[in-house]
Structures are given as C-alpha cells and as structure tokens.
Amino acid sequence: ENVFQGRSVLAEKDFSAAELEYLIDFGLHLKTLKKMGIQHHYLEGKNIALLFEKSSTRTRSAFTTAAIDLGAHPEYLGQNDIQLGKKETTSDTAKVLGSMFDGIEFRGFKQSDAEILARDSGVPVWNGLTDEWHPTQMLADFMTVKENFGHLKGLTLTFMGDGRNNVANSLLVTGAILGVNIHIVAPKELFPTQETQDLAKKFATESGAKLLITDDLDEGMKGSNIVYTDVWVSMGESNWEQRVNLLKPYQVNMEALKKTGTPDDQLIFMHCLPAFHNTDTKYGEDVKEKYGITEMEVTDEVFNSKYARQFEEAENRMHSIKAMMAATLGNLFIPRV
Ligand code: CP
Ligand code: NVA
C-alpha cells in the first residue's frame, strides 16, 4: 500500500496533516542519506518533464538534481521550447507528455492549467508554482521549521508583505492544516481573499491552529517564532508603484523582529527567494531611482543576521521535492498515515 502512489500535488488542501508530515519527514530522511552519500534510486528508469512558463532558479535546480539523485531523467521544457497554450490546447499537450513521461512538474500562471495537465496526462503532476499556490515550497519550508524547532504544532509563523500572493496563500492553508499558527500582516488591500481565508479557517478548526489576519504590525508580530516574507511584486504582476507604496511600512527589518518579543533562540527569519534586500540587483537600482528605497521586503541586516534561514530553506527544496516525487512515483511501501 502507498497512499501517495500516482497522486498529483496541485494544492496543499488535497493532503491531510499526517500526509504532509510524512512527506516532510521523508525529506529529512533523504537529506541524511544524501549527506552520508547513500544512494536512493527510487525512480530508476523514469522520465520526468519540467514545464516552466515562468523563470526559476531554485525550483528548476531542485527538480533537476532531485530527479537525477533518484535515478530518473529530467527534461527541461521552457516557455519558448514547446507549444503549451500557443499552437495547441493544454489538454493536448497533457496527453502527449503523459504518453512519454512518468511525471510532470508544472510552473505557470494558471492553477487551472496545472489541473488540466493532471486530469489529461494520466501521470502525477507536481505544481512548481502558479499564481495561486506554491505547494513544493511548503514542503521545504515546514521541513526547515521542523529542523530548527524539532516540532511544528503550536509554533507561530508570521508572513508579512503581499498577503494574497501564492506563497502567502500556501503558508496560510498549510499552517492551518498542520496546526502551526499563522499571522498574515499586510495592508488591507492585500489581505488574502475571502475564499482563501475560509478554506484556511476550515482546516484551523480541525487542527487547532490560530489564524490572524491584520494590518497592525505590533499585533501581527507578537509571539512569532518564524518571520517570513516574499517579494512585493510577484511574477506576472506589474503595478510596482502602488505595491511599493502600500508595502513600504511592511518591510521585515530589525525593528519588526523586535516586535515579536520572542527570545533569540526561538526566532528565525525565512524567505522563499529570490529576495530584494539590497541594490546589488538591477531590480533594486530601478527601485532606488524611482521610489528612493534601497531595500524592499527585507533589509540586508535581517537577511544576513543570525536569524536568517533562507539558504537552508532553499537547499531543502531539493530534499523535499525528492521525497514528494519518490512517494508519488516510486512504488514504495508506505503504510496508511
Ligand atoms: N522559491 C522559488 O520557487 O524560487 P525560484 O523561483 O527560483 O524557483
Ligand atoms: N511570490 C513569488 C514567489 C517566487 C518563488 C512569485 O510568484 O514571483
């Protein structure tokens, strides 16, 4: 028996707390094997398609190295390489890819495209980020939290920034499923949609997670163990000026971290990356000229502080994606969890 076999990973809501925790723990186990140099060829002979409509450093690298470590062959299919959504329907692409590949990673704009791929390819589809959700990021993130604190339940994670982007949505719902308290601190205009809030609330009643959505920094930061942020302008967004003005007060800086009131050894900072934390990026330079700021969602000081865990988090993308692919495609024996 294997409760994961053949399943797609499109959104967190499709998985129970026990299932998510199983994948997180499996990721930690595979990380140990990797560090010890012990082979784990669970996907020997499999072919994996990596479909990207948007650019990526971490997700692409993680899927590629994870597939190779598992003994599978990854094939990158970029936005300009294939016909997806241009000369043929997503459904037709799904049928073709499903006849050749054993699993498909999809990063794109529309969640509905991920759903069509899963419905019509007949093979597991893993969502590598859409405008709505970023589930593989969540496996790495809660794996990183567990590594740092030894447990998940009862911790408080505060996301400050664009409260209705894919990462904020995913943190809210995943925390609610896992019993991790989630605070979203954002300007009212960027609160999660009512639909996302309702979904999270439903899970929170079952898990006991406390959810707080507020535009008040003092209230939102108080008692946090994990302070998390993400870019103010996600891929596919363009309204720079409006977002910068709305989000300026919601920068993660040392002052904001102090508002948590949490002892140093119980507090970490996380960021899914890429981050705009100084003017080294071309991006930052434009922002400096136009809006007079040199740092955006997080200051260089916090990014380089003892609280920072963003690079462990990035590494964990590979270990956790490996766990997810092996569990859904590896014919493993996984007793019902
Ligand atoms: N965190 C993340 O998904 O990074 P990439 O966009 O580089 O894949
Ligand atoms: N919210 C960001 C996440 C990048 C990993 C985006 O969608 O661009």
TrEMBL record:
InterPro entries according to UniProt: Asp/Orn_carbamoyltranf_P-bd (IPR006132), Asp/Orn_carbamoylTrfase (IPR006130), Asp/Orn_carbamoylTrfase_sf (IPR036901), Asp_carbamoyltransf_Asp/Orn-bd (IPR006131), Orn/put_carbamltrans (IPR002292), OTCase_ArgI (IPR024904)
Isomerase found in the keyword field: no
GO biological process: citrulline biosynthetic process; L-arginine biosynthetic process via ornithine
Keyword entries, A-Z: Cytoplasm, Transferase
Location within or outside the cell: Cytoplasm
Domain Aspartate/ornithine carbamoyltransferase carbamoyl-P binding: 7-147
HAMAP family named in the record: OTCase (MF_01109)
Protein name per Swiss-Prot or TrEMBL: Ornithine carbamoyltransferase
Organism: Levilactobacillus namurensis DSM 19117
